User: What shape does this take?
Amino acid sequence: MKLFQRAAKMYSNPFLAGVGLGLTLLAAFVIMGQGLGASGGYTSLVSSAVDLVAPQHAQNNGMYMAYLDNFGRSPLNDWVVFEIFGILIGGFISGLLSGRLKSEVVKGPRISTGGRLILAFCGGVLMGFAAKIARGCTSGLALTGGALLSAGGWVFMISLFIGAFAMAYFVRRQWI
Amino acid sequence: MIAPYYKYGYFGQDAALLIAILIGFFFGFFLGRGGLGNARKLAGQFYLKDFTVIKVMFTAIITAMIGLNVLDAVGLLDLSRVYVNPAYLIPQLTAGVLFGAGFVIGGLCPGTSLVAAATGKLDGLVTLAGILCGIFVFGELFDSFTGFLYMSSYGQITLAQISGLPQVIMVILVTVAAIVIFVLIAKYETKKEQTAVTQRLKSTQGRVLAYAAGVGLTVLILAQWIAGPDEALTEQEMSTQLQGMITAEELATRLMRKDDDFVILDLRSPRQYRVYHIPGAQELTGDIAFEDKTSAIIYTLI
Assistant: This one.
């Protein structure tokens, strides 16, 4: 632990991290023929959960069935589910190595912890819903599609920045 | 051996799932390393306070994009067999705006909230719960708005195909655009930093100067008091001590002339300052505005 703490610099140069991330994405393209993702894996998990609780209901629904059929009704056949499991481990190890493991709520000074968590949940709902409309999130559509020069990826990325800058003023108390 | 290896059948599904964990590992690792597991750093992008998001994301995009196209050009990879995200332009445009709003409200995105949660950030875990709920709500509504979801479908179309430009030109254009953005960011950051440093320097300089002068003056007067009025000072000594000092008369004249090239600093207690101070004098508490001033006049009670 001493060793880790001595080397602890919480974050690396963003350009260096960007190159690492880019090479990871390139490896996914080269090895698998597809990019990175996150929301797709969550959709697999949600679909399986619905199938587990109410199989009849899942069967009558176009989205759940699309995912369940694709992966033989098990999320354990979905590549992205394994990939997000990897994200969890990688995120943890990276935090461990640079002293970022800390139980806390990250927020600006002018909002209560409860307020921050409510907004975190609301933002999450909005993002989950929007990622399904777009067929991807920041990882699967903006980043992956961006590198592939996908028209859909770039449209999503640019409108994402517009939406975020437009909304920023209204939630500024949460961050600055 | 030509890439993508999985699509050419070099290994099966089990190996693919193992590779998924490995690739995910590096994905999560670099997201965390770059600072994208921190909601405040992410949200800071949209207040122009932190440019980590754009720097990491655009560097990753151009790295992977150039890599892909170089490998394709030298024949090590068949780019046509890499899955390109299909375009549904109007749904994606709408969803982008919604997602962006959700991003700045929640502070983390689906991938980064997982990294945040992995390092103990409760807000990451809650964002994640929200995302799962959002997907569930979408799933429940899915069959009722498929008309909108599938409109303006263009298939796996790329910017090169839409614009009619050759792929290599498009790659160069995107790379140049990213570099221009990086340069603009660097300029903006340097400018902001300089302003901050100057302000900090000014106020520190001002404070140090005022305190030093105040202490010097007090010591001088104290020394004179200890020495006692009986021990007459020679004219020579007197003039040395009075150098840099100002008489009440002179100060009054300068005040009446409305000179503004100096500041007056009150070294007495805040209470005494409140009761009375020389017009225009400032307390030595907060930041003192030293801009365009050539001298500071300091007074105190002995």
